[in-house]
Each structure stands twice: as structure tokens, then as C-alpha cells.
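Aim 2 progress. For Diaminopimelate decarboxylase, the working sequence is reproduced below.
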Amino acid sequence: MHLYGTSGVNERGHLEIGGVDTIELIEQFGTPLYVYDVELIRERARGFKRTFEELGIPAQVAYASKAFSSIAMIQLADQEGLSLDVVSAGELYTAIKADFPTERIHFHGNNKSEEELHMALDHKIGCIVVDNFSELVLLEEICTNREQKVKILLRVTPGIEAHTHDYILTGQEDSKFGFDLINGQAEDALRQALQSEWLEVLGLHCHIGSQIFQTTGFLLAARKIIGKLDSWHGSIGYQPKVLNLGGGFGIRYTQEDDPLPASQYVEEIVREVQNLVADTDLQMPEIWIEPGRSLVGDAGVTLYKVGSEKQVPNVRKYIAVDGGMSDNIRPALYEAKYDAILANRPLDPVEETVSIAGKCCESGDMLIWDLPLPKAGRGDVLAVFCTGAYGYSMSNNYNRIPRPAVVFVENGEARLVIKRETFEDLISLDLALQEAAVTNKE
Ligand code: LLP
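Predicted C-alpha cells for this construct:
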């Protein structure tokens, strides 16, 4: 049994997180229930920031809010002095409603709409990460009309793709994101942006992938980018203020995963950039990063009630829980692996290997294959670890299953931060045939 953060087994023999008994949590808030260990999120955030401070490098650690966005989560990111990466008007709206300081918001996305760009400009957000030429033109046009300046980063694709364990170096990276560094697009974009009276090009951004276990890919990307920046410094005289190397730092979902400590990713990246820059006429830029998963992933646990079971003789035993791909689509979508225990009796000895099925009407709705567990049955409570990133944020209403509630626990206190969806919520946007016909006529 591998426990994360403040998790432990209390005197009642139950899994507890943040000093709160998980069984009491489900009695109060029901299941499925997302539980976040707030202290662990704080620890992760402070770890990233401290490493930069110790290295004496001006930096921004921007939380990639796509991993889990909610008003309370954004407030927590603010309390910890993080910046924020948003990729849509919805994520931006959440940040604004959380009163997040807009100058620390970075706006990403490969297809920002005119409305989204106006919204970002209305709120004077910190910077827009420009992704392609059509956005560059559109933003320039909008800023000219509004007579408003904006800071931008140019997102580049350095021709490196991280496939978790290994890296593929491609000539022309086939990606929908960013300006290609190798084929000259990035340089053209920089020249074009530098001509604008309204756009201030802070520097470059790249993001090479997610759930990455080594630093090799980040170092390769830094080398490619600084090589180009050096040559542009000679040809155009451009000195970047910022180099944003994205997110993607891996976490431990199961014992098969072996991520580096966050500090090691940061240290190795910073030292590489310092060494590379030292060989050029460039000044050391600020280093920005954008962790999502590594800030919130292992701080999240999902609690489910065990329901029915099915034995397929000589094949396997299925145990079904009261959620599934509607609250965590990652196993179905990416074959993502998770570990789990029984929260109501975590210390009981393992007796059998079972596979955990969801309740959705789809054979692929399996949460965990081949999980060693004590003999479990109806009424037991399953705690699936490490569901904090891209779990709730990718949840959905397949089969019209209401999305779960989310609770923050810290220092023995539980705080409901997202209410459970109700059946009324589920139909709240539906229009009856009669109403729909009338609306159409208007
Ligand atoms: N910055 C950019 C520009 C990104 O595209 C992403 C993630 C991040 C930062 C944060 O990456 P992280 O530190 O969380 O790995 N739904 C997938 C993950 C998609 C990641 C998309 N971009 C999953 O559930 O694994």
C-alpha cells in the first residue's frame, strides 16, 4: 500500500486524509467523491517555488488549471503565489470569479476566438501565448482597434515529442500547436510580432508533453530554443525576457511509475539554460513553468461505493463501483493505470485479484484491471489514488450520471468546494419539445 501526502490509517482502521476520516466524508457528501489533500498541493507548489528561489532565478510557476479548475482551487493557487495558465474563456471566467490577480494569468490555446481575446484584453491578463499566424494577425488587429498593448509569448514547437519514457526528434513536428522552430515559422512570427506597436514579445513558450519521467526532453528543447534565440539575437537583436518551458512533470500513479522529484526537473532545466545562455550574448531570461498534474495529481483521491460483482469462471472477477468513466475517463481514453485500496479497511490482507468496473453502459468503462484487494463486496468503499489531475476536469454526464462532489481536506477539516450535480442540474438546460418549437419560431 502506497499512501500519498497526509493520508494514513486512523484508529478506527479507516483511510484518513488531511486528518479527516474518509468514511465520515462519504457519509456526509456521498459517493463518488473527489477528495483533495490541500496540504499536499501546498507542499508541491512550495517545492517548485523554493527550488527556483534557491537557484536565485526569477521565475513564475503557473498552475495549468486544465488539470483541475474550480473557484476554490484557483484561490488556493493564488494563496500559494502561483501564476495561472488558462486555455479557454471558461477557465478564464473561473479565474476571474475566484478573484485571481489577472496580471498573473497566461492565456493558451490553438484557437482562441475573438470573444476570448477581447475577454483577456478586457481583464488585462498577464500574457497571451500566441499559437499561430492567424491568431497573431487577429490579436494585432484587435489590439490596434482597441489601442491596447498586450504582452505575448510565442509558442514554438521545437521538434521534440515526449512519449513519457522516450523522445522523438522530428524534423517538422506534426502538431496543431505552435510555430515550428525548425522550418522558419517561429522566426517569421517573431519578426512579424516585433513590428507591432501593440504586441510586446516577452519571449518563447514550449510544452513537449505530459507525464514525463526524465529531464532529457526538456533539456533538448531548451538547447534547440536557445540555439535559435542566439542566432536571432545576432540577426534581429532580439533579447527574450522569458523562456517558458511548459509543464509535463510526471507523477507516480502506480508502482510502475518512477518520476523524479519536482526539484530535480527544475534544477536540471535551469542549469542547462544557464550553461547554454552563458555560451551566447543573451542575458539569462526568467524561467516560467506550467505544472498541472504534478501540482494536483497525487493530492486527489476518488471514493466510490462497491456495488455488484460478477465472476467469470476461470477468467476474472469484476467488482463494480458507483462511478466510472463519467468521473474518470482516463483509463478508457489513455489506458491510464491507477492503484486503489478499501478505504473502510485498508489494513485487511489481500485475498484476491479483481478488476474494477464502472457503472456506465460501455465495456470499456473499466477503472482498474487486476487489482489485488481483500475480498470486497457491496458496501465497501474503494479509494482510487492519484485522481487529482484531469479526473474531475474531464468528467462528463455520460448515461446522465451526475458529476461527483469535490471536497478539500486540511488540518482535520473538510470543505465542500464543488457540489454534487443533482438530477435537476442534469436537465436544467433541456427544453421540452413544446418550448423548443416556440423558441425556433422567434
Ligand atoms: N502547459 C501546456 C501548454 C499544456 O498543454 C499542458 C497540458 C500543461 C502545461 C500541463 O501539463 P501537465 O503538467 O499537467 O502534464 N488529459 C491528459 C493530459 C493532457 C495535457 C494537456 N496539456 C491526461 O489526462 O493525461
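The chain has 13 helices and 23 strands. This observation will guide construct design in the next reporting period.
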